[in-house]
Amino acid sequence: MEGVRGMDDRIPVTVLTGFLGSGKTTLLQRLLSCEDGAGVAVIVNELGEVSLDHLFVQKLTESTIVLKNGCICCTMREDLQTGLRELIDNRDRGLIAPFDRVVIETTGLADPTPIAMTLDGDLLLKRQVRLANIIATIDAMFGADQLREHEESMRQAAIADRLVLTKTDIASKEETARTREKIHAVNPMAVVLDACSLESLWTQLFDIDPFDPRTKSSEVQHWLKRLPSIEVLKSSRSSGRYQGKNGKNVMIRGYHKDKNEEGGEIQTFAIRTEKPLNWTAFAIWLSALLHRHGNRILRIKGLLNVPGALGPVVLNAVQSHITPPMHLDEWPDEDHTSRIVFIVQGLSPGLIQKSLDCFLSVLE
Ligand SMILES: Nc1nc2c(ncn2[C@@H]2O[C@H](COP(=O)(O)OP(=O)(O)OP(=O)(O)O)[C@@H](O)[C@H]2O)c(=O)[nH]1
Fold it and tell me: Does the predicted TM-score (pTM) go above 0.90?
């Protein structure tokens, strides 16, 4: 496990996603125009034979690669690997201007998860780049309907760390409120920003990096603040078995639920256990869970109390991609119980909780 103070000099890679026409290219353009924008290399992925998006990014330099053959989310992983290697190689040989960050703009129909996995799955690349942040743009006018009707839109929002609400300048108050409500139901942990009133765009999108050990603590504080609004399923391994309504050990009350027409119900919930967690056993359980249901587990964030450690272990998974767990030197708050937040689709929270309980109790 990495220590929180460990320096990570790999190049941070931001995945910029968002449904068709939601404002990805516009946001990218703004980011590239920031003071530090010159240090960004860009990979643009476009659908179809004719690539246009890159033409709209006016500040494109030689540090831009356009992947034209379709969607990197499914068939283009090799192109993405090759593109990234090419960028790094050209930089190292002095053929292009130096850069210290890469932004990958996906197509409007991409599932960003395989991109994260591509970064992780290539041993050579993994030494040079790391996933830094997943940003999704959401159209304030049409976002609520898109999230409900399009699986792609919902998955992009559920997986993201930062959600940028666009077109609030032209959306009605009601449309914006509806979209915000829907976003909150799909991903209550994400930071939601308004593209039209973002003052320090760069800082808000890049400086707090959920996967960077140095800013991990503030990121954890952020989603812990949101935890009270997420229903917690107490593990029966807590000290004293929890008796919820109907005499059950698990209390399920008012956790976030949302309906997506294509892919089934999305639910956000947290499991809390008061006893320290046997890390090895937990890791085996988690791997098995992700192996079996990775596609239906959209996001996991956790703070784990592991025996013998001074601070908690931070867990971050995007579907079946697990970021190497990191140790924090100290707990961010008084609460030292393990808390694991899940965003799932079409999976029963109670069953996940039961399966964890069973697995841990067998090992006791
Ligand atoms: N008024 C307003 N228009 C916006 C905003 N963001 C984007 N747009 C407009 O919305 C349209 C689509 O924006 P793009 O940035 O091309 O969206 P995209 O997500 O890159 O689109 P695709 O690549 O086709 O999926 C353009 O006409 C933009 O000028 C915003 O915050 N306010």
Answer: no
